[in-house]
């Protein structure tokens, strides 16, 4: 009387379907994530020797003609604080990146930085690297 099983279980595992899923997930995350959110507005940034890349949560742009933008949405100067507060509420981390044209007087930069600091946000100034 033979007690051996006639059906042997094959212990091999095919990884081809797993690699397909990994590549699809990799492509999905590469297309949907954004490391740096450019402001998309044509401004002439000042230059710097070293530049750290900061993941932008809230972008405040002041153009050459003193037009204010918060995350590329035009905002009046008197509504700036409420717009920044609203955007910081939606962001995970309180980081405000200032994109200010180099011809704009410093008082506007200080005004926006003061508003961001009063909302307990970290302030960073965007520059373009020296070439």
Automatic annotation (TrEMBL):
<keyword id="KW-1133">Transmembrane helix</keyword>
<keyword id="KW-0812">Transmembrane</keyword>
<dbReference type="GO" id="GO:0015031">
    <property type="term" value="P:protein transport"/>
</dbReference>
<protein>
    <submittedName>
        <fullName>Biopolymer transporter ExbD</fullName>
    </submittedName>
</protein>
<feature type="transmembrane region" description="Helical">
    <location>
        <begin position="21"/>
        <end position="41"/>
    </location>
</feature>
<keyword id="KW-0653">Protein transport</keyword>
<keyword id="KW-0472">Membrane</keyword>
<keyword id="KW-0813">Transport</keyword>
<dbReference type="InterPro" id="IPR003400">
    <property type="entry name" value="ExbD"/>
</dbReference>
<dbReference type="Pfam" id="PF02472">
    <property type="entry name" value="ExbD"/>
</dbReference>
<dbReference type="GO" id="GO:0022857">
    <property type="term" value="F:transmembrane transporter activity"/>
</dbReference>
<keyword id="KW-1003">Cell membrane</keyword>
<comment type="similarity">
    <text>Belongs to the ExbD/TolR family.</text>
</comment>
<dbReference type="GO" id="GO:0005886">
    <property type="term" value="C:plasma membrane"/>
</dbReference>
């Amino acid at each position: 009387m033979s007690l051996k099983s006639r059906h042997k279980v094959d212990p091999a595992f095919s990884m081809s379907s797993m690699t397909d899923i990994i590549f699809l997930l990799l492509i999905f995350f590469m297309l949907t994530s954004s490391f740096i959110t450019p402001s998309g507005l044509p401004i002439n940034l000042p230059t710097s020797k070293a530049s750290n890349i900061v993941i932008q949560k809230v972008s405040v742009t002041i153009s050459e003609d003193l037009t204010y933008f918060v995350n590329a949405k035009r905002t009046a100067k008197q509504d700036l604080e409420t717009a920044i507060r609203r955007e910081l509420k939606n962001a995970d981390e309180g980081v405000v990146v200032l994109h200010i044209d180099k011809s704009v007087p410093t008082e506007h930069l200080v005004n926006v930085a003061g508003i961001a600091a009063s909302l307990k946000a970290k302030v960073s100034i965007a520059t373009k690297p020296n070439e």
